[in-house]
Design a protein that fits this description.
The complex is a heterodimer of chains A (299) and B (323).
Chain A (H helix, E strand, L loop, with lengths): L1 H6 L2 H30 L6 H19 L3 H26 L9 H23 L15 E5 L2 E4 H23 L1 H11 L1 H6 L4 H23 L9 H16 L4 H21 L6 H13 L10
Antiparallel strand pairs in A: 1-2
Chain B lengths: L1 H6 L1 H19 L2 H26 L8 H18 L3 H23 L4 H21 L1 H4 L5 E2 L10 H24 L1 H11 L1 H6 L4 H27 L1 E2 L6 H14 L6 H19 L4 H14 L3 H25 L1
Antiparallel strand pairs in B: 1-2
Helix pairs in contact in B: 2-8, 3-8, 3-11, 3-12, 3-13, 4-5, 4-11, 5-11, 8-9, 8-11, 9-11, 12-13, 12-15
The chains are: A mainly alpha (299), B mainly alpha (323).
């Protein structure tokens, strides 16, 4: 009985909530990746670099506005836009010429960009660790009931989630561009045959996906130390989430992020040294039973 | 036998190259000898990746895992078991082949991109276990100061050992590619459905090439231990896997020696550029983009195509004149 008591303990509930906060960030980044993978069919390794750039720009903007509350909100607004702008330039000048290439080439091209951006970030921001502080009302934690504490920032992330999810759902299912992109994912030649400029539709989808990467980076900035190499771990996680959810499926990305975030936070509680192994093991278990992901992919 | 080798132009070039490599330590400084041994073992690694990638058409995204597994198995065997170090050099590749077999059995049912992704996730699992298991693998510090047998402990001896093993391994892989098995493999790459229809067991062939590739990657890992006498968890990180992919693409994925050439170019570039500046991945990325945009078949692929075109034109000439 002692065992059960330790499992269902306040620390478990706290950890579940930490996992939820992580899930939100992972969902935001992975949904952008999934969107690009589903519509443009680019396995975009560069996505991780954009997440990192988003976090670094958040640091710069927040400092430019003197830190504190204004700085934080301005950074959250501006950083994803900067990232989106960068991605638009790169898409128009490079990626748009290569949509017809096989996946291996696209994978390596996006990896090449991630190498280049890794060094660019090193040039601009240096190799040190950076940190952003959240506004005062988001610092500290709340005692929910005895022993269960929620950090306010995680609460904020969980509240952000429905906004992003609804906006994405609306964009994909209710707007014209969303419908066109869905059609183009199935048959791009047919879509261009009815007189739609597929190239610009793709550019829009790409920029929206990258915007989400930047948003994820901006939102995660106050909770981590911003450093080089944060792109490498995140992009691997985001890819696995997209794969176990089903390529291009938005709700799959959510489900995958939930599995990944929970396995991570509960795993750390269960076995601190190897906690980080659990999400990867979860991915392998999922793929053994559902080799093409939990939900239907758009491919 | 000799006559056949010299009849073949490629054979002459290969022997000339080997003689040159054999003479290198006589007139090059210590640094260049070290660099050449790194090129040799990395070239072996890239060539072993090319078996499943270029000839098998399998998206082997996480090849570095087998390289690292071979290196770690060798290092741990030498350091912890107390048995003869030579045993470590046998165990390393075998462990890598075994890991390759296990991962292959899990991944092989999946097609292209899903295969690569599941392999990445399995490989990341292996990486994390090695990265975190401080008491056994040394965690992020790796293992250093691994004792080598006296025979190969001097630098020249190390070089000749690496050269010998690399040459033998590459020769074996060449024979494998030219064997009926290699032909079948290329048939599967070009048309898996048709190959299955004429009675070829597609998955078994693919699994076998994965194991072979894993084995030779393990050999390269063991050679790394010989040269550096240390191992690091970075050898299993996925970015290294993509760097090996870049080597294959740069040299030419559909040629046998292309990956070797690509490895040589990238190792040289890395060494000389990092002598001048801290920014090494930027030039690598730019080189990569140039290759993807302008040389998608790689350097050797491009050269081969030009040569073939020349042959074809020359062969066509008399026919054109007659008509």
């Amino acid at each position: 009985m002692d065992f059960i008591y330790t499992i269902i303990s306040p620390s478990l509930l706290t950890q579940i909530f930490v996992g939820l906060g992580r899930t939100v960030v992972l969902f935001i980044v992975a949904s952008g990746l999934s969107l690009i993978l589903g519509v443009l069919r680019i396995p975009n390794i560069w996505h991780g670099s954009l997440y990192m750039v988003g976090a670094f720009v958040t640091f710069t903007v927040a400092n430019a506005f003197g830190g504190g509350t204004t700085g934080f909100w301005m950074a959250i607004l501006i950083a994803p836009l900067v990232v989106a702008l960068v991605s638009l330039v790169v898409e128009r000048s490079f990626f748009q010429h290569l949509y017809e290439r096989e996946h291996l080439m696209l994978l390596l091209l996006t990896f090449a960009f991630s190498l280049v951006f890794g060094d660019l970030v090193k040039m601009v921001w240096g190799t040190g660790y950076k940190s952003v502080s959240a506004p005062r009302f988001l610092e500290g934690s709340v005692d929910l009931f005895k022993g269960v504490t929620l950090t306010r920032y995680n609460l904020f992330l969980v509240l952000i989630f429905p906004i992003v999810a609804v906006a994405l759902w609306f964009l994909v299912n209710k707007t014209k561009i969303g419908k066109i992109s869905k059609a183009a994912a199935v048959d791009r030649e047919m879509v261009s045959a009815v007189g739609i400029n597929v190239s610009w539709v793709f550019a829009t989808v790409f920029v929206i996906g990258c915007f989400l990467a930047g948003l994820g980076g901006a939102l995660v900035a106050p909770t981590v130390s911003i450093s080089l190499g944060m792109d490498h771990t995140l992009i691997m996680e985001a890819f696995l989430i997209v794969i176990i959810g089903g390529l291009g499926n938005m709700w799959g990305a959510l489900l995958g992020a939930l599995i990944f975030g929970m396995a991570q936070s509960i795993g750390i509680l269960a076995w601190p040294q190897f906690g980080i192994v659990f999400p990867y093991a979860a991915v392998i278990v999922v793929l053994l039973f559902r080799p093409t992901g939990l939900l239907k992919s758009t491919w | 036998m000799l006559k056949r080798i010299f009849h073949d132009k490629g054979g002459v070039w290969t022997i000339a190259g080997l003689v040159l490599l054999f003479l290198f330590p006589l007139f090059l400084s210590r640094f260049y000898v070290y660099l050449t041994s790194m090129i040799l073992l990395t070239g072996l690694l890239a060539t072993s990746l090319n078996l499943p990638l270029g000839y098998g058409g399998i998206y082997q995204f996480h090849h570095a895992v087998f390289y690292g597994a071979g290196a770690y198995a060798t290092a741990l065997m030498i350091q912890k078991s107390g048995l003869s170090p030579w045993l470590g050099f046998i165990v390393g590749p075998l462990v890598a082949a075994l890991l390759s077999l296990i991962m292959g059995l899990i991944c092989i049912r999946l097609s292209k991109l899903y295969f690569g992704m599941l392999q990445l996730s399995l490989g990341s699992l292996v990486w994390i276990v090695i990265y975190r298991w401080y008491s056994f693998t040394g965690g992020d510090n790796g293992i250093s100061g691994i004792p080598m047998p006296d025979v190969i402990s001097s630098q020249k001896a190390t070089y000749y050992f690496v050269l010998l093993i690399t040459a033998v391994s590459v020769f074996c892989m060449y024979r494998i590619i030219k064997s009926p098995f290699g032909r079948v493999l290329q048939g599967i790459r070009d048309n898996p459905v048709r190959s299955a229809m004429i009675g070829i067991n597609v998955h078994r062939h693919q699994l076998l090439v994965l194991v072979i590739a894993g084995f030779f990657a393990g050999v390269a890992g063991s050679l790394f231990v010989v040269v550096e006498t240390s191992v690091f968890p970075d050898m299993l990180f996925w970015t290294l896997s993509l760097e090996i992919l870049i080597m294959c693409l740069l040299g030419g994925m559909f040629t046998f020696f292309g990956p070797f050439l690509g490895a040589a170019i990238i190792i040289c570039m890395r060494t000389f550029i990092s002598g001048y500046t801290d920014y090494w991945t930027l030039p690598l990325g730019i080189l990569m983009m140039l290759v993807i945009f302008f040389l998608p078949d790689g350097i050797l692929g491009y050269v081969e195509e030009k040569l073939h075109k020349g042959f074809r034109e020359r062969a066509m000439e008399p026919a054109v004149k007659e008509s």
